[in-house]
Amino acid sequence: MKKLFALLLFCHVAFGVKHSLKYFLTATSGVPNFPEFAAAVVLDEAQVGYCDSIRTAEPKQDWVRKFIKDNPQHLEWHINQCSGNQQFFRANIDGLMERLNQTGGAHILQRMNGCEWDDETGDIRGFNQYGYDGEDFIALDLQTLTWIAPKPQAFITKLRWDTEKARLQFNKNFYIHECPKSLKMYVHYRKSFLQRTDLPSVSLLQKTASSPVTCHATGFYPDRADLSWTKDGEELHEDVDKGEILPNHDGSFQMSVDLNISSIAPEDWKRYRCVFQLSGVKDDIRTKLDKAAIRTNRGFPAGAVIGGVVVLLLLALCIAGLFIWRKKYNGTQQHKNSCPAFTFKADIYKNISS
């Protein structure tokens, strides 16, 4: 079984990973207790940067803070881009409301743009699309260099934007060359920052004496890892509940696996091990099932596990509220710049409402 897992883990690495860099920008009108403008940068489905009409641009992970410290001009550029896009989106949502004869109510204009890169095949895919009030409004087709308008209300915008050949070429260059260049730079910088020489932390946790024993591993990178329970060296599949790999605030990852101990005799505990395996690392981390090593209730590291889940839930709620429109597009696979960092430069200052 162990040999089979090692083979599968190797195959997973061999297939490569699809990385993504996405920019989400949102303008609102008539939405109480929410910024009139907000923007987020998401790398491999984890938020790494944010700004809005109230708060200035700020990095969201430790490796990004280090990147900004090493390259302070990137933060300055981001602040300028955030300010410029705020004016652009504010003008456009007002113009759209006027054109559609909307005098009140809650309205939301959004843009999702960015690129994907497969680090195994080298394939690149760019995207740039707008949404209005929860529905697709207009999107760029990089193959034909034309705009697609799924709604009749966007057709006048399509006709105008299709004539702007210089802008279309700018978009093509940005999404096919500049954006992927940025994406690769961030991925490599993050990897060099998070690739650790020390081993991740592995702990045994238990809420009550009758609860399952949780084996929790945290602080590892990349996310190609496995955590399992074994008995006499053989991996267990029954009485085991394996959790998903989740991101930590610093860009590293964590995961856990529960073992139901209700049917395990005390004298048999010594036969069980929690085994952590990280792709590319020769030695596994093996932790013996031992009552003396279990942290129970008061020793349960809520900050590591529960806190991490709460952060993820809050982020999910933020994304759901901020980005009501987030259409799944063909060919997208979610991951479980020569232009400076966190720029939103494509299509800036182009009127969507005329």
Automatic annotation (TrEMBL):
Record domain Ig-like: where: 200-274
PROSITE patterns: IG_LIKE
Residues in the signal sequence: 1-16
Gene Ontology biological process: immune response
CDD domains to which the protein is assigned, alphabetical: IgC1_MHC_I_alpha3 (cd07698)
UniProt cross-references to Pfam families, sorted A to Z: C1-set (PF07654), MHC_I (PF00129)
Family label: Belongs to the MHC class I family.
Official protein name in the record: Major histocompatibility complex class I-related gene protein-like
UniProt organism field: Stegastes partitus
